[in-house]
Amino acid sequence: MSAGHEDSGFVARRFVLAEFATPEALLVGTRKVREAGYKNLDTHTPMPIHGLEEALGLGRPKIPTIVLCGAIAGACIAYAMIYFCNVIDFPINVGGRPLHGPPANIPITFELAILLAGGSSFFGFFTLAKLPLPYHPVFESEDFARAAVDAYFLSVELPPEGEADKVFAEVQTAGALSAELVTESER
Amino acid sequence: MAAPNLSRDPLEPLPLLEGKHTDKTINDSLLEHVWRGAGKGWWALFACALSALSLLAIAICWTLYKGIGVWGNNIPVGWAFGIINFVWWIGIGHAGTLISAILLLFQQKWRTSINRFAEAMTLFAVICALLFPLLHTGRPWFAAYWLMPYPSVQRIWPQFKSPLTWDVFAVSTYFTISLLFWFLGLVPDLAALRDSSKSKTKRMIYGLFAMGWRGSGRHWAEYKWAYLLLAGLSTPLVLSVHTIVSFDFAVSVLPGWHTTIFPPYFVAGAVFSGFAMVLTWMLPAREFLGLKHVVTLKHLDNMAKILLVTGMMVTYGYVMEHFVAWYSGNPYEFSEFFRVRQHGPMAPIYWLMMFCNCVVPQIFWSKRARTNILVLWFASILINVGMWCERFTIVITSLHRDFIPSSWGNYSPTWVDISLFIGTIGLFSTLFLLFLKFVPAVAVTEIKELRHELDHDPTAETAGVTH
Fold it and tell me: Residue B234 to residues B74, B98, B141, B240, B439: CA-CA distances in angstroms?
């Protein structure tokens, strides 16, 4: 890192990007590198791979809880809205029917529960994933264009003073085909 | 080696993926139709679609300029093409959700090749459907505050006890959730498009929609849940949407409408017509887009079987309606089903419906018919016609002959009605052709996943219940 970078307060993040031949090799390799004590691991694959959550040491997914909250909120908002409109704000007697008719409220309550649950699944995912994110240092690699096509990558983020060579050796023993160092560019 | 073949179910010898593939060949073969320039066939179809679309534009402008008096419906037939086409289009959309959500939950692996296609169909069909009730309000620019609970100074709220209001919520939720589900599934494929694009502009555009997707394992972990839960939510949603659509009729008191069988019978009919529409489009698409290795004869065979099953459910619905009309001893119901529908002025449409929906699908008992492209294509068209006739029969016959002969009337559509209907077919086709040109028609990521699963467990292909 040059002095110019430090002046602007920019510290370039560095990643070791290692390619593996198959999803199975990636699974084994990821587990090995993680057990060697490396943090901030991530994998880049064209499709979800069974068992990677465990190999990366991820906790329970958060989406189900978010979706449950969305569903409950949707149902409550819908029922409260109908109750407010029909009973509180504008009570109108239609042929002597009760102002508050629970069976007639079921469809809209259900639909809004689904709408908010589905919305929280979608927007919850993008929020958790911090997407959209147009730039990420891994895109610096020429080979990375294959990550969405047919290549299986493991990326290891280096600590600011970390040595890339040690990580290269580590991913080599974990079975990587090749590895390269990518550095975030300042823009 | 013969061993994996032996472990296959001998009754299901057709493969889900034809030939030997790697991630790269799958990627390239499925994206090829996006990169390839539009051919003559595409332009010819697009021209037809656009001319039908311009008919829609003319019909909409005329309707808005003159008012809905230019439509053929008038008392006693107050509901006609508007609701017929609405229900028909919504039903067509339902197959998309069934394929993408319900078959996903049942772990039916054959859905992978057709789900993206069917989901896109759902979106476009719902757009066509939504046009009709909006135009039927006469002044669509006011529709938002007639239909939605909008807090205006008039303090008048929608009637929440009416199925029509439920419909507003059901259909708009359905459209929103279908769009989110479709886009979420599309993001990894857009990244694949971004990374295989040759020109910088295309890379920019697809990159914009891919939103910086980098296939991160941390993302996939949450993504799988988000996708699965959206599927889980879509499943009751799709059942509720057509149930609520059927309530529009079933909650009224008219003979022919006032029946409890309507919700399940509408849902079965929706899936029936939707699968027919998927076939109508899928058969030419797999031929011309080079998708034969992922949409194999096995997929066509399975879809034909679903047509047979849902066709028989629909037939059961018809039989039950007639049985209850007779068994209830209600003279109006009896007259509706056994006199008006069978011998009244709309009888040809009724008999066409019976032929297309009950007789035509019976051909799929034969395996040769289920795997014959031409038979499938013509049968799918006939089923679409039959399902449109079903909605016509339900809406028009009940309205034009109700309780008192003095209130009877007749119905015939005007040129505006017919143009609107043909126009929505144009709108649907235009959107669909654009979709086939710019987005992979098959879920590339899911096919790659499927290939890995099949490579590791050849029996999984036919079992459909193992992982």
Answer: 37, 9, 29, 10, 23
Tell which residue, B113, B170, B139, B83, has the closest CA to residue B413.
B83
Pair of tokens at residue A83: 């109750």
- Residue A24 scores a pLDDT above 60: yes
Phi/psi of residue A153, nearest 5 degrees: -110, 150
CA distance B225 to A62: 9
CATH hierarchy code of domain B17-141+152-461: 1.20.1630.10
Ramachandran category for residue B433: left, alpha or beta (phi over 0 → left; psi -120 to 50 → alpha): alpha
Give Cα separations from B248 to A133, B87, B165 (angstroms).
Answer: 45, 10, 10
> Residue A168: pLDDT above 70?
yes
Q: What is the CATH number of domain A12-59+136-183?
A: 3.30.70
Q: pTM of this prediction?
A: 0.91
Please list the rounded mean pLDDT of every run of 10 residues in chain B (467 residues): 43 69 83 82 93 96 94 91 94 87 83 87 94 91 82 82 92 94 92 88 90 90 93 92 93 91 93 93 87 88 94 96 94 93 94 96 95 95 96 94 90 95 96 91 86 70 40
Contact criterion met (CB below 8 Å) for B257 and B398? yes
Which chain A residue has its CA at the smallest distance from B158's CA?
A85
Number of Cβ within 10 Å of residue B166's Cβ equals 27
A146 inside 8 A of chain B by CB: yes
Q: What is residue A142's DSSP assignment? A: S
Question: Edge to edge, what strands does the sheet with A14-20 contain?
Answer: A41-44, A152-157, A14-20, A178-183
How far apart CA B144 and CA A146 sit, in angstroms, is: 46
- E strand or H helix at A179, and its extent? strand A178-183
Cβ neighbours of A98 (radius 10 Å): 12
- Chain B partners of A132 at a C-beta cutoff of 8 Å? 211-212
Interior angle at CA B289, CA B285 and CA B292, nearest 5: 80
ipTM of the complex: 0.91
Q: In chain A, what are the domain boundaries?
A: 12-59+136-183, 63-128
Token couple for B235: 């499943």
Q: Which residues numbered 27-66 in A keep a CB inside 8 Å of some CB on B?
A: 30, 42-50, 52-53, 56, 58, 61-64
Interchain contact A119–B (C-beta under 8 A)? yes
User: CA B338, CA A30: separation in Å to the nearest integer?
Assistant: 71
> What's the sign of the alpha-carbon dihedral A52, A58, A62, A64?
positive
- Give B263-283 as a DSSP string: HHHHHHHHHHHHHHHHHHHHH
What torsion do the CA atoms of B4, B7, B13, B16 make, to the nearest 10 degrees? -60
Q: Is residue A129 within 8 Å of B219, Cβ to Cβ?
A: yes
For residue B82, the model assigns a pLDDT of 92
Distance CA B126, CA B86 (A): 9
Six-digit token pair at B351? 């008999």
pLDDT in tens, A34-71: 888 888 889 999 989 888 888 888 889 999 999 999 99
